[in-house]
Specification:
5 helices; alpha+beta; about 190 residues; three-stranded antiparallel beta sheet; DUF6505; four-stranded antiparallel beta sheet; about 35% helix
């Protein structure tokens, strides 16, 4: 195994701490983590567990989930340390028969993760995991920074505009609207 690139967990905002039951710490070496779901009835997943299945990379130190990873340089020593940490988890927490079997599984997971890093350092990668025909499938996409001069409002859900008007504040009576909708439905 040679030095090269590996993914690290990335947290751009606190959303992972709300989306997942356990969020990875920023900067952990990461793997896709599909092995966590091999013995799971995927149809029964709900809420945070379903979110983890659909889009969570695994931080190998915490076994927490991260929506995004960033391609990073990894020395041979860092890669070997990542294999050893993951092998310890696979042996102690997931029941590998011995440390060598766990190490082989960890190396395989690290190699899969490294295969995602044939991109420039700093590239951000997201994953979508699904189940098709009884198999777990992973699809990856690279998120790119907007080009200089690109429309800064493109992709925003909200745009706030400051005004100098001192007019009345807009208000909406949502309960009244809801009651009106029920009254209309009852008459129909």
């Amino acid at each position: 195994m040679s030095a090269g690139r590996l993914p690290r967990t990335l947290r751009l905002d606190p959303s992972d701490t709300f989306v997942f039951a356990r969020a990875a710490e920023p900067g952990e070496w990461a793997v896709t983590g599909s092995f966590l779901f091999f013995d799971t009835d995927l149809a029964t997943l709900a809420g945070k567990e379903r979110a983890a299945f659909r889009s969570g990379f695994i931080g190998i130190d915490s076994l927490g989930f991260s929506t995004l990873v960033v391609v990073s340089e990894a020395s041979e020593a860092e890669r070997e340390a990542a294999v050893e940490v993951l092998a310890r988890h696979i042996h102690e927490r997931f029941g590998a028969p011995d440390r060598e079997a766990a190490r082989a599984a960890a190396r395989e997971e690290i190699e899969v993760a490294a295969s995602l890093c044939n991109l420039p350092v700093g590239s951000v990668v997201a994953m979508h995991r699904s189940e098709r025909d009884g198999e777990i499938r992973e699809e990856f996409r690279t998120l790119h920074q907007r080009a200089a001069g690109a429309d800064p409002l493109h992709g925003r859900a909200f745009h706030f505009v400051e005004t100098d008007e001192d007019g009345p504040e807009e208000q909406a009576d949502l309960v009244g609207l809801l009651n009106g909708a029920f009254a209309g439905a009852e008459r129909a």
